Automatic annotation (TrEMBL):
Taxonomic source organism: Falsiroseomonas oleicola
Organism lineage string: Bacteria, Pseudomonadati, Pseudomonadota, Alphaproteobacteria, Acetobacterales
Protein's name according to its UniProt entry: (2Fe-2S)-binding protein
One Pfam family, short name: Fer2_4
């Protein structure tokens, strides 16, 4: 679907798999360039979703990064060794008052 025009300089981990990336590019771009198009699953039907707008408006690119949920991949810069994965369903509940 997409082809890189510049060489990669690091790797990231997606669902436990090492993927080539460029430090500073968006996580969404790194995943798309690696052929990954399913970033999350919807809470109701589990339908796979992937980035649409690539500018922070649609929220279809939500992923988990370093254990944090609801991270917009299109607005997140790649750092070497970054660990990310599919967000399954709705974000988990965190009780900050406890
Ligand atoms: S692709 Fe639309 S918010 Fe990230």
């Amino acid at each position: 679907m997409f082809r890189r025009t510049e060489p990669t300089d690091c790797t990231i981990e997606w669902e436990g798999r090492a993927l080539p990336a460029r430090a500073g590019e968006s996580l969404a771009v790194a995943l798309l360039a690696a052929g990954i198009t399913s970033f999350r699953e919807t809470p109701v039907t589990g339908t796979a979703r992937g980035p649409l707008c690539l500018m922070g408006a649609c929220f279809d690119c939500l992923v988990e990064v370093e254990g944090a949920q609801n991270i917009q991949a299109c607005l997140t810069q790649v750092t070497p060794g970054m660990r990310a994965g599919i967000q399954h369903g709705a974000r988990g509940f965190v009780d900050d008052a406890a």
